[in-house]
């Protein structure tokens, strides 16, 4: 058993850290305050090839795997740009990873070079208002019409639509209610499509409405409306009616990348708290000398290291083509929890000053909380661990 990172992963950590060092907490806080996409850091990472890590070399990418991508995301978040995890989840995760594994030759030739150099962005349209976390129950329908498909329906909490060139749209080509009548499993009848976002917006068949939200305002999260979006059959990812297998290859990397973001968030929060606790003196000594503050931070550092190990293991398993669902879920649960707990403890360490925008703790605090709910609520992960790993009975 070898716990040494490959040289490729070490190079990624050093390269992303060098880019991230140019953008301090004040930069990320300004972007958040202005509800502005951090275009400068995005372009900088794109030029360096840090979004194209998992794109095959023949398309201009780095030819690496999910492990390197997770380390890149962790490093960016640890620098203080914790909402930057959306960069890696949306474009390399939803875009490059999905097309590399399931795209046609034509799709790869058309899109992967732009993903490799950072000039193309992606989003994923899965969740719906009435389905929530129950992906089986989505109703957005893709109906064949000649050689094309027409997509009609609604999605919600879709991040990065405003910047995306392409969308991975998850649809039903067989309604959920009909699968049982046909003797098919509940997961049958899913089809994933590539949607040219700008083309569909211009045609007026796709629209979106940003949702005002508490944090992560460097990009929008939106309601998205499909009004007979017309797509050629060549835009199908994988096979018609068999998209759920492709979707799993989207969701597991998403959870692993989210876990890496949580680990990076914890590192950022712990660094701020520790720096403050070393220098802030009350009653004649640094507050970090008080075990009431020191021990909780030490406990969270230990949890961060444990979460990192599981995140790397899950990514490694995925790269080896081995089952990783259990590990991806445990990593995501742990990463989200430690990111939030570290942000919360950093708030407690700074006391009243954490409430001030003079410090970045309030931003990290807001951004870290949503990770316990997305991309999957921790209750569902616990249900998976209970039923699939412990063999306990299902409650539904």
TrEMBL record:
Enzyme superclass (EC): oxidoreductase
InterPro entries in the cross-refs: Acyl-CoA_Oxase/DH_mid-dom, Acyl-CoA_Oxase/DH_mid-dom_sf, AcylCo_DH-like_C, AcylCo_DH/oxidase_C, AcylCoA_DH/ox_N, AcylCoA_DH/ox_N_sf, AcylCoA_DH/oxidase_NM_dom_sf
Span of domain Acyl-CoA dehydrogenase/oxidase N-terminal: 9-118
Annotated SUPFAM superfamilies: Acyl-CoA dehydrogenase C-terminal domain-like (SSF47203), Acyl-CoA dehydrogenase NM domain-like (SSF56645)
Gene3D superfamilies on file: Acyl-CoA dehydrogenase/oxidase, N-terminal domain, Butyryl-CoA Dehydrogenase, subunit A, domain 2, Butyryl-CoA Dehydrogenase, subunit A, domain 3
GO molecular function terms noted in the UniProt entry: medium-chain fatty acyl-CoA dehydrogenase activity
This protein's record includes keyword Nucleotidyltransferase: no
Chain ranges of the Acyl-CoA dehydrogenase/oxidase C-terminal domain: 242-372
UniProt EC number: 1.3.8.7
Domain Acyl-CoA oxidase/dehydrogenase middle: 123-229
Cofactor: FAD
Keywords per UniProt: FAD, Flavoprotein, Oxidoreductase
Organism superkingdom: Bacteria
Ranges that cross the membrane: none
Family the UniProt entry places it in: Belongs to the acyl-CoA dehydrogenase family.
Official protein name in the record: Acyl-CoA dehydrogenase
